[in-house]
């Protein structure tokens, strides 16, 4: 999920045209924080109702959809507050408002969460790979002791996929279409087909059954989800967070740190070493099982998450962007061994 770009000014005046959902949110914020509260009618993201806003006392905030109507969101909030207390760059909901915040909607109550607005600059890649690796490592170090924290009991748990021959066939056909679109050799599609069809007897059981260390992880540490403020980098989007093997989180960042952020290629071996070394300097030490399963974790995340990004997750306009096209092409061509652990 992309991060919240910094608006160039305070939220637009309430006289501007706004959808009913924005008017309802504005009314709730005014009722709870004061008559000067306001909401920018234009969402920060085309695909999600995320809005910049201002509370009654002038505090700048960002309002996001809640994870759910209660337990999961409260567990996510407990995790975020634990990270903030540990001095890790993360966002917890603002004090003084319910979590989640109930907002009347046309189809019933809609649940929102109000977060502080972060002033800062975006992450630039590859220049900031060490910054991302350090942030990921600190997130893991602060989260590992929380694996059995009862306050996080309702945080989502990672769900391993179940075999579905029909969906595998659809993925094989979709990847073949992408390969043809890019004019790449047929061997590229054949390799993905072999991996997708062999996934259930290869990478999945090797990763799933390895008893890898698991605790709350973000599964979304990418350049577009981090803002570099005065006190360092801040992860502004924990909504994908769940209890999962941290090795998958590291693999996710290796693969997708630059997704939607501008680079025309994945990190090369030297750039990866910068991210890796920054991570290892502050993260809990990797276990022998994690080191043994690293390549399997990379293939797992490439097939599970990368296939979606290459097919359903990218539209024609995005494919027309040379940098985005280059990044996804590199993902298609990625060979084992580029990122030694």
TrEMBL record:
Q: Name one GO molecular function term.
A: kinase activity
List, alphabetically, the InterPro entries matched.
Kinase-like_dom_sf
State the source organism's domain of life: Bacteria
Keyword terms, alphabetized: Kinase, Transferase
Q: Does the keyword Kinase apply?
A: yes
Pro residues: which segments have biased composition? 1-16
Q: What is this protein called?
A: Ser/Thr protein kinase RdoA (MazF antagonist)
Disordered: annotated span = 1-56
